[in-house]
Amino acid sequence: MAAPSLNLLQLPDAILLRIFTYLPIPDVYQLSKSSPKLHCLCYDQYVVSSLHLSCFHEMSKDIYKEIISNSCRHICKLNLNHCYWLPAQVVTEMVLKCQKVTDLHLIECKLRSHQLVQILAKNQLIRVFSCS
């Protein structure tokens, strides 16, 4: 007799959320495209409250923007270190969407001083900040 098979969608949401926190962001993004249920879980507060988007050269700026747009209301920690290939205006727009961010890391992002001032003026909750 064959062992019963288990579909990923049959796992409890709590287990899926826990698994998703260990996946790299490009994998979470791809997974979010597979079903409406997984899309909701991939952008759950538990998964995206601490978002590390640094060094994913294979992702386009549009994918970065989509990830931020889908998760901005939950992001508390945002790491865009070494995203030097993203245009400064794109980085600025993405960060400004994240109104709950308390930790922001922008090392090696091509931001000008006026963009940094704009980000810090609009995001009053920032307590930890790094840039270069």
TrEMBL record:
Gene3D superfamilies: Ribonuclease Inhibitor (3.80.10.10)
PROSITE patterns tied to this protein: FBOX
Signal peptide coordinates: none
InterPro entries: F-box-like_dom_sf, F-box_dom, FBXL18_LRR, LRR_dom_sf
F-box domain mapped to chain residues: 5-51
Pfam family, one: LRR_FBXL18
GO biological process terms held by the UniProt record: SCF-dependent proteasomal ubiquitin-dependent protein catabolic process
Protein name, entry field: F-box domain-containing protein
Organism: Octopus bimaculoides
Taxon lineage: Eukaryota, Metazoa, Spiralia, Lophotrochozoa, Mollusca
